[in-house]
Amino acid sequence: MTTLVKTPVDAPVAAAGRGPWGLARAELRRRTSVKISLAVVALFLLMAAGAPLLGALGGWSPDTFDKSAVDPYLGGQPLGPLGGISADHWLGVEPVTGRDLFARVVYGAQVSLLIALTATAIVVVAGTAAGIAAGYFGGRTDTVLSRLMDLTMSFPSLIFMIAMMSVAKDVNRILLMTAVIGLFGWPGIARVVRGQTLSLKHREYVDAARVGGSGPWRILSRDILPGVAGPVIAYTTLIVPGMIATEAALSYLGVGVRPPTPSWGQMIAESVSFYDTDPMYFIIPSSCLFLTVLAFTLLGDALRDVLDPRGSRT
Asked: What is the pTM (predicted TM-score) of this model?
C-alpha cells in the first residue's frame, strides 16, 4: 500500500494561482511601515472629514477668541503649561487671540488635505490622459504633448504660483491654489505613463485586439490603462506629500489660504514669532504636517516597490 505525501510544492502553486493585485496586497500586508503609514493617513483623513464634528466635540470653533485663556500683561501668552493645554483647550490656544489650537489644527487638516488631494486628482487625470495619448498615438500627437511637458517642467512654477496668488485678490483662494498647483504637476506622471504605454502598445494582446477590430478607445481603456494602473497608483501616492508641502509653502509665504481660514502652513508661519515664548504653537502644526508627509512618502515608496519594481530601481 502506498501513502500520499504532501510536498511543499503546494504553497508556491497556491501563490502562483493568485493574480498580480492579490500578490501585491499580500506583499504590502507583510510590511510594518505600510500598516503604520496607512494608520496615520487614515487618522488625518478622518480628522479632515470629521472636522465640524471634532470641532463641536472640543467645544470651540476655529475663529472663536478666548481672551480668558491668554495673559494680556504678558503679551497675550497662553495661561498654563505647554501653550495653555487644559480640559477646555486640548492642544492649547493661539497666543494673543486665544483661539483653540485643536479646532484650528483639525480645520487646517481639512483645508490642506482638500487642496492637496484635489490637485493630485487633477494631476493624475491630466497626466495619465496625456501620457497614454502621447505613447499610443505617437507621431505629431507625441511631439506636441512631449514639447508641452518639457515646457511646463522647465517653467519656474514656484515663482509663477507666488505671482499668480499675489495678483488674484477677489477669488476663491482654495480653488485657485488647487488649479495652479495642478497646472504644473501633470508632466511628471505623464512622462511615466508615456514610457509605460510605449512598452505596452506593441504587446501581443494589444496587437490581437487591434487585428480583432477594436478601436483606439477600446484598446486604451481595456488593454493599455490596466497595464499602467500599477505605476500610476504608486506615483499618485508619492505626489500627495509634494502637494501638501507646496500648499503649506505657499500659505507660509503668505500667498496661500488667507486668515481667518486655518491652514497648517499659515499656522506655522504665524507661530515663528512665538517660537521662543510658546514653542507648542509651532510644534503642533509642524508635527501634523511632518507626520502626514512622511506617512504618504513611506506608503508611496512601498507601493512603488511592489507595483512598479523596475521604476524603483531607476
From this structure: 0.82
